Each structure stands twice: as structure tokens, then as C-alpha cells.
Amino acid sequence: MFFLKQLKHTITLHPRFFGPDMEEFVKTKLYQDVEGTCTGRYGYIITVVQVVSISKGKLIPGLGSAEFVVVYQAIVFKPFKNEVLDGVVKNVNKMGFFVDVGPLSVFVSSHTIPSDMRFDPNGNPPCYQSEDQTIEKGGAIRLKIIGLKTEPTDIRAIGTIKEDYLGIIA
Amino acid sequence: MKVNNKRLPPVRRGFVQEEDAARLILGDDFAEEQCLFISEVKILLDAQRENKAGSDKNATGVYQSTFDYVNQFARFKNQDTVREVRQFLSGENLESFEVAQLANLCCEEAEEARTLIPSLVDKKDEEPLQALLNEMLTLKKFQT
């Protein structure tokens, strides 16, 4: 799910940036620091929409650099267990297939694919096939997240399509 | 010296309630946050792209993959339609997460919506939900 979330980040600025354009530097540094990062707690920070406030700089004793606490609003993407999502098939192999849901890559194991679907390694591209459905690279698919593993800088997810109303979508 | 007698809430060390979208448990960080439709994310990213055209700050891989994703899966392409859907769904007594899921998945049948968004089962009966979905599909069909 995508969220609009207010977040806080502390920026340390080198003294050479002190001056009339300081605010610009702080903002640029913020964009560089947070955009595109992923934390287990907040998910993927996609982009900063708005900078809400920048605190007064506080010099760090002994260094000369200043710290700014920046409050900003960002679009974040965080997956949840049992959430239903649409995605695009990226990679198919005999163990299952990978689906890209925006920045997140979800693995769907062959155990969580309906049992009437068979892996066809000779197909071009390789695919999972049943009588009326084909899962191959590039197809749009609806899946449900059944497990998440959050690491400090990464999120891994596994999904299923072995339930009602899940699978290839038009 | 004054002693602070205020009792602190019990600390549950190491206890983390597991997040579960089916029961609308999103964790402390996200329970109160505003969920966005995929269509809304698309509008926000488009607007941002226009403002910052030429700068390379948007070049991150996460940004690009999200941009491609929302362009493919945004159900409502038109800004007015998105606003209408948001307004119309917020009139219902639903959580922000459910509203966003309804708009993102755009189910056609009530049964389907109830299966994919299990928290709806206790809140909405089949018929009102079907009426809701029909209304949404009509809006989708007539967007320009």
C-alpha cells in the first residue's frame, strides 16, 4: 500500500555550505539521503513530496558541522501480510516466479501456484501453463502476500496465487 | 527533590504485534496514516515530474520502478475522476486502507471484493457493496 507519511531526518551539513543557500543544500541533501531508500519499518521511501520544516542548525561541538532536523512528507510504499496486490511477472523458473510490485520484488513459489498449472521449460519464454491461463514474463498478475521478511535495508516478500480471484489479470 | 510518581505504561519489550492487512493491523507507524490510491500516486509523481523537469534527482531505481508501476496499474487516469472516487468512497464508513484497496483492485463483483479484502466481510453486506462497486465502475467507464 502507498502512504503519504510524515517523517523526520537529521542532516549534518559541512560548514562550507553555510551561507545564503543553506536551505537549498539541506533540501538537496535530504533528497539524496532518503529518496529511494528502504527500511523495514517504513518500507520504500519513493519520493519527498514536501519539506514541512527545517529546524535551526545546531553546531556539533568539536566538529564545526551543523545538524538540522528536517520534517518532510513522503510517498512511501509498504507491503503488508495478507495484502492483495497487482504486479508484473519479471522472471519465471522451475522453482516459481518473481513479480515486481513497484519497487518490491515478490517471489511466488511453485507450491503456491494452482496445482493444474505446469512449468513448461521449453516454452519461449519459459512459462507456467494450464488449460486456460499462461504465466509468462511481462504478464500482469494479482497476488496475495503471505510472508514478509524485513531487513534493515531491504524487504523480501513471498506471495501466493493459489486462492480465489488471484492469478493472471486482463 | 521532587520524585515523579507518574506511572509509566508497561513496556512490552521485544513484543511486536504482527502486521496483518486482512485484520487491518498495520502497526503503530501506519495505523493512522493516509493511504493513497495508485492513481493518486501517479498524479503526485506526474506533478512532481513537471515541476522538476530537467533535474536528475528523480533517477533512483525505486522511483523509476514505481513510476512504471503506477502508470500501468492506475485505474483512474483522470484527476477529476480520482477526486470523485475518493469523495464518494470516503462517504462510506470504511477505513482508509479498505478504501484504497477497493479503488486499486477495482473488483467487479461483491464476492470478489469480499474475498480480496477480508475485512469488508463484517462491514458491508453483499448488496450495498455491489452497488458501491457498480458506481465505481461507472465512474471508471466514463472517465475521459
From TrEMBL, chain A:
Task: Specify whether Nucleus is a keyword of the entry.
Answer: yes
Quote one Gene Ontology molecular function term.
Answer: single-stranded RNA binding
**Any keyword Transmembrane?**
no
| Protein name per Swiss-Prot or TrEMBL | DNA-directed RNA polymerase II subunit
Question: PROSITE patterns per the record?
Answer: S1
Native organism taxonomy? Eukaryota, Fungi, Fungi incertae sedis, Zoopagomycota, Kickxellomycotina
Any single GO CC term annotated in Swiss-Prot or TrEMBL for this entry: RNA polymerase II, core complex
The UniProt record lists the S1 motif domain at 82-162
Q: Which locations, inside or outside the cell, does it occupy? A: Nucleus
Q: Which Gene3D superfamilies match?
A: Nucleic acid-binding proteins, RNA polymerase Rpb7-like, N-terminal domain
Provide a GO biological process annotation: positive regulation of translational initiation
Q: Which UniProt keywords apply?
A: DNA-directed RNA polymerase, Nucleus, Transcription
List, alphabetically, the InterPro entries matched. NA-bd_OB-fold, RNA_pol_Rpb7-like_N_sf, Rpb7-like, Rpb7-like_N, S1_domain
Belongs to which family?
Belongs to the eukaryotic RPB7/RPC8 RNA polymerase subunit family.
Ranges in coiled-coil conformation? none
From TrEMBL, chain B:
- Work out whether the entry's keyword set contains Nucleus: yes
The answer to whether keyword Metal-binding applies is no
Q: Which GO terms describe its cellular component?
A: nucleus; RNA polymerase complex
> GO: which molecular function terms?
nucleotide binding
Protein's GO biological process: DNA-templated transcription initiation
Tell me where in this chain the RNA polymerase Rpb4/RPC9 core domain is found: 28-143
Indicate where this protein is primarily found: nucleus
Query: Keywords of this protein's UniProt record, alphabetized?
Result: Nucleus
Subcellular localization, as worded in the UniProt entry: Nucleus
Q: Gene3D superfamilies under this entry?
A: 1.20.1250.40
InterPro entries this protein is in? HRDC-like_sf, RNA_pol_Rpb4/RPC9_core, Rpb4-like, Rpb4/RPC9, Rpb4/RPC9_sf
Leader sequence range is none
- Cross-referenced PANTHER family: DNA-DIRECTED RNA POLYMERASE II
Which family, according to UniProt?
Belongs to the eukaryotic RPB4 RNA polymerase subunit family.
> Can you say what this protein is called?
RNA polymerase B
Lineage here is: Eukaryota, Fungi, Fungi incertae sedis, Zoopagomycota, Kickxellomycotina
